[in-house]
Specification:
By secondary structure, the chain is mostly helical. It is about 70% helix and about 0% strand. The protein has 2 domains: about 80 residues; about 270 residues, no CATH class. The chain contains 14 helices and no strands. InterPro entries: NADH_UbQ_OxRdtase_su1/FPO, NADH_UbQ_OxRdtase_su1_CS. It is found in: Cell membrane; Membrane; Plastid, Chloroplast thylakoid membrane. One of its GO terms (cellular component) is plasma membrane.
């Protein structure tokens, strides 16, 4: 039997080409995810630096200034220190729950960033249920905190986990009702469609003007979901000794703070997307399209401007959250639950009914 060497070489070259295509496909799939993770990490480090600078300014202190210029590397230095610190495990605790809890809290928030559009056509996954996917994954975070509190075998940690679960249930419902009102106004639950629905009339087309009550409820509920002051009952230092974080050290302790700032950033991004027009500027999109020539350079310019506008609006609400933390005192547990169940829930339900009625009358 005679084997043609040319045919063998063609077969080998074909398989090499197919394997290269598979490798390029995997790289093309992972590259956007890596870029998104890198951008989110830089954004979290910036929030940590801003919180220290703003809190220092409010309390008339200096703030970080030695680690890098203006202290911008202080958060990186703290993270490096936590990586090399010893990880302690409670002798009588549940080791599996103790380890899994922080990971669940961080991973569930990271997944929420996949549906956030930072600019036009710049979104990792444009799903028809984008906003409700965020709500679903944000509901998983208290489960991780409850697992951490229970696995620590500490009554203060367990009580902090129970408080986190109660607080999440109390404020998740008003937040979901506000999101449902926005979905009815936009006729879609996709984050991209919600932003594009606000671009027709520019500044006056933002959902902030059509849903002012929902905006206030969403802002309060998102602060409670992030467990920021005045809603940081699950980790209250005075009565719970830091709550579910009490027994943690090293990188696991750092994961809780990463999850907290990740949640703050994603909540501020969703405030921008749902109520402030996302990447849209103050003028209607029709006029802006006429000003910028639609070609490759024009698309890159619009995408860059969109990213800048989205982040500027986002960090405005980060500033509001930081200022609120260092201005208002902590609520009691009964006050927190009364605010959620007796005030925010009925008002958000009434807002949803008004929105539904107006949509039906406009048909």
């Amino acid at each position: 039997m005679i084997i043609d060497t040319r045919e063998v070489q063609d077969i080998h070259s074909f398989y090499r080409l197919e394997s290269l295509k598979e490798i390029y496909g995997i790289i093309g799939m992972l590259l956007p995810i890596l870029i998104l993770v890198l951008g989110i990490t830089i954004g979290v480090l910036l929030i940590v630096w801003l919180e220290r600078e703003i809190s220092a300014g409010i309390q008339q202190r200096i703030g970080p200034e030695y680690a890098g210029p203006l202290g911008i590397l202080q958060a990186l230095a703290d993270g490096t220190k936590l990586i090399f610190k010893e990880n302690l495990l409670p002798a009588r605790g549940d080791g599996r729950l103790f380890i899994i809890g922080p990971s669940i809290a961080v991973i569930s928030i990271f997944v929420s960033y996949s549906v956030i559009p930072f600019s036009s056509h710049l979104v990792l996954s444009d799903l028809n249920i984008g906003v409700f996917l965020w709500i679903a994954f944000s509901s998983i975070v208290p489960i991780g905190l409850l697992m951490s509190g229970y696995g620590s075998n500490n009554k203060y940690s367990f009580l902090g986990g129970l408080r986190a679960a109660a607080q999440s249930i109390s404020y998740e419902i008003p937040l979901t009702l506000c999101v449902l009102s926005i979905s009815l106004l936009s006729n879609s639950s996709s984050t991209v469609d919600i932003v594009e629905a606000q671009s027709k009339y520019g500044f006056f087309g933002w959902n902030l003007w059509r849903q002012p009550i929902g905006f206030i409820i969403f802002l309060i509920s998102s602060l409670a979901e992030c467990e920021r002051l005045p809603f940081d009952l699950p980790e209250a230092e005075e009565e719970l000794v830091a709550g579910y974080q009490t027994e943690y050290s090293g990188i696991k302790f750092g994961l809780f703070y990463v999850a907290s700032y990740l949640n703050l950033l994603v909540s501020s991004l969703f405030v921008t997307i749902l109520y402030l027009g996302g990447w849209n500027i103050l003028i209607p999109s029709v006029f802006f399209s006429d000003l910028v020539e639609i070609n490759k350079v024009g698309r890159v310019f619009r995408m860059t401007i969109g990213i800048f506008i989205t982040l500027a609006k986002t960090y405005l609400f980060v500033f509001i959250s930081i200022t609120t933390r260092w201005t208002l005192p902590r609520l009691r547990m009964d006050q927190l639950l009364n605010l959620g169940w007796k005030f925010l829930l009925p008002i958000s339900l009434g807002n949803l009914l008004l929105t539904t009625s107006s949509q039906l009358l406009s048909l």
